[in-house]
Amino acid sequence: MTMYDCRDDSYTDFSFAEFDTVGSSRPLCGSLTASPLQPDDTLPLSDLALFASQQGYLTQRHGHDLIICDINLADALMVNNRFG
Question: What's the confidence (pLDDT) of residue 54?
Fold first, then answer.
């Protein structure tokens, strides 16, 4: 599969396993990176980090960016809808 990254204007090839090691179906997962609209406006990212943690996701801060690790596609779309 190929995914387009509009932030860096690049394409990335990736693959994923349909099933985990015990045979359970596994949804497509990846990392979601969120950046504030203004560099000093970090409150929305704090709200997003809290929400992601409540959903059971690990988050990491890198400078002004927030990364949600191993988020499934359905939840990533929900986050995008809720937080923009």
Answer: 94
Angstrom distance (rounded) from CA 29 to CA 27 = 6
Query: Hey, what domains does the chain have and what are their CATH numbers?
Result: 2-83 (3.30.56)
Structure tokens at 42: 């970090």
Please give the sequence-ordered ranges of beta strands (E in DSSP) within the chain, or none if there are none. Answer: 2-5, 10-13, 29-34, 59-62, 65-72
CB 49 within 8 A of CB 59: yes
Write the pLDDT tens digit of every residue in 51-72. 999 999 999 998 888 999 989 8
Is the model more confident about 41 or about 79? Answer: 79
Q: How far apart are CA 52 and CA 2, in angstroms?
A: 26
Q: What is the dihedral of CA 59, 63, 83, 7, to 10 degrees?
A: -110
